[in-house]
Amino acid sequence: MTLEQELSEAMGEHVADVRASSLMGTKIRRRHRGRRVRVRTAGAALVTVAVAGAVPSYLALTEGPRATVAGPAGTDSEARAGIAPPVEVPRAIKMTVAEARAVLEAAGLTASVEGETGEAGLVVEQTPHIGESVPRGSTVRLVAIDPARPAPSSTTDGPEERMTMPQDLGDLGDGRAFGGVRFGYLPDGLEWGKWSGKNGFGTTSYTTTWQRPGLPEGEYDVQAVVYRDGAVAQLKKRMKGYERQGAEPITIDGRTAYLVRAGEAASQLDENGTLTLVWTENRDVAVEVMMSPGYAGEFGDRAGTEMRKIAEGVEPTR
């Protein structure tokens, strides 16, 4: 194994268990009552646009609505009590790390940066998200990448912008076949999100999403991750962790699986977390399916049944 491969796998192991907060949907629902959650991503994920003319997914999926730097003004009673008023998280997406730090500090926040990019790195993800109200002094987690990888073919935000990255995720013609498996069943009304990601959850892993028409950009109803080769061991380790935390295994077509509620750190169970089903398809392939809290809520007690149907419909393509 080359040094480059070792570094790549080390990076994958470091970020594979990081997800966009599953509780983010709760925060969004309190404000908008949309009962949805954004796509889970991991630091250093290589996200590709699978349709020409689309806005780069690695930016569109995490950017969210624009917000001003200044937070809301405090009340007189807060001032008299010496309580610092909350602030709105400013936009750091598409900025360099140095620029993002300055903007956050100006808003009374601090930055925690993931990604070995230095101050010139490009910020592609931030948590809490743009416009969220947080206490002054809070830390905003930034994920940065080398601006040379991946590189947009244009510097505009227009519909012509596309990624210049390889499309090696398999047959994504209808968004159901990728990473060596095909998803034969999805709940009625879902359509492919027209994006795909590689190596965001370990080397080698692939991900994409499906949602109902009209869902806001960057949100999903069902997300799937296919783990192959070295990434399979990472998911198996997580499955053992679920068992140690008291999760009961289930059987799907003779395969051992875990249907759980996963927290912000996907390895930790959380009764308010994202409905997640994980299983090993064979020795070299494992699969994870996630259903957003809002979408699962619409199914109610049938959400687990739908997740099982998705798993039962998965078939290898190679």
Concise synopsis of the structure shown:
InterPro entries: PASTA_dom. It comes from Streptosporangium longisporum. It is built from 8 helices and 19 strands.
Care to describe what's here?
The protein is an alpha+beta fold and 318 residues long. The chain has a domain at 42-54 and 165-318: Protein Transport Mog1p, Chain A, CATH 3.40.1000. Helices cover 24% and strands 27% of the residues. The protein is built from eight helices and 19 strands. Strands 2, 10, 11, 12, 14, 15, 16, 17 and 18 form a nine-stranded antiparallel sheet that branches. It has a three-stranded mixed sheet with strand order 4-7-5. The protein has a three-stranded antiparallel sheet with strand order 8-9-19. The longest helix has 15 residues, at 230-244. The protein starts with a helix and ends with a strand. The relative contact order is 0.16. The model is unreliable at 2-8, 20-36, 49-76 and 149-167 (pLDDT under 50). Keywords: Membrane, Transmembrane, Transmembrane helix. It comes from Streptosporangium longisporum. InterPro entries: PASTA_dom.
